[in-house]
């Protein structure tokens, strides 16, 4: 499986492509960082990121896409830029019919290092070891993208299969009996086994 993973950001956007299957050796295909100038207008920066993403998708033809999930932050402008780039990645994937999975930073750290509290240095060390690299990937955005790709190879495939199975499974009928409300005007069938009370005499 070939995974294209993106650590979204408007100033620095890490992109990594990894080949592999769960339980087998992982192979680095390419890693890099898309950069834009903070002084440029946001629309121009988004177009620059979009153009670069197009080349990544066309060059590597991934089978799945992984994106780091955006979290709220005190820096609103950073969150906005990250969310906007996330949207661009999703559009590219959707146009090609590729499944998209969002992974949290904690999930990625746990998958790569065994601890959801691992720091960037520990994650980079494990990425270098798992991919058999001679030198650690730099900058940190590049290492984060590769960690995200590794996480998806190991976990994302299972998550997607579970989601597909859940969507394809027929809905189970409820075992809870339906309660039919009684109506004051309802007519019940006569039960011959039930004793009948004598009618009150008429005056």
Automatic annotation (TrEMBL):
Under the subunit heading, UniProt states: Homodimer which binds Holliday junction (HJ) DNA. The HJ becomes 2-fold symmetrical on binding to RuvC with unstacked arms; it has a different conformation from HJ DNA in complex with RuvA. In the full resolvosome a probable DNA-RuvA(4)-RuvB(12)-RuvC(2) complex forms which resolves the HJ.
Entry note: cofactor: Binds 2 Mg(2+) ion per subunit.
Give any single GO term for biological process. DNA repair
Q: Which residues bind Mg(2+) 1?
A: 7, 141
UniProt catalytic activity: Endonucleolytic cleavage at a junction such as a reciprocal single-stranded crossover between two homologous DNA duplexes (Holliday junction)
In terms of InterPro entries, this protein maps to: RNaseH-like_sf, RNaseH_sf, X-over_junc_endoDNase_Mg_BS, X-over_junc_endoDNase_RuvC
The EC number on file is: 3.1.21.10
> Its family?
Belongs to the RuvC family.
Instruction: List the GO terms this entry assigns under cellular component, sorted alphabetically.
Output: cytoplasm; Holliday junction resolvase complex
Q: Which residues bind Mg(2+) 2?
A: 68
The coiled-coil regions, if any, are none
Where does it localize?
Cytoplasm
Question: What does the UniProt record say this protein does?
Answer: The RuvA-RuvB-RuvC complex processes Holliday junction (HJ) DNA during genetic recombination and DNA repair. Endonuclease that resolves HJ intermediates. Cleaves cruciform DNA by making single-stranded nicks across the HJ at symmetrical positions within the homologous arms, yielding a 5'-phosphate and a 3'-hydroxyl group; requires a central core of homology in the junction. The consensus cleavage sequence is 5'-(A/T)TT(C/G)-3'. Cleavage occurs on the 3'-side of the TT dinucleotide at the point of strand exchange.
Molecular-function GO terms, alphabetical: crossover junction DNA endonuclease activity; DNA binding; magnesium ion binding
Identify which cofactors the protein needs according to its UniProt entry: Mg(2+)
Q: What is this protein called?
A: Crossover junction endodeoxyribonuclease RuvC
Identify the catalytic residues.
7, 68, 141
Region Disordered: start-end pairs = 165-203
Q: Which keywords appear in this protein's UniProt record, sorted alphabetically?
A: Cytoplasm, DNA damage, DNA recombination, DNA repair, DNA-binding, Endonuclease, Hydrolase, Magnesium, Metal-binding, Nuclease
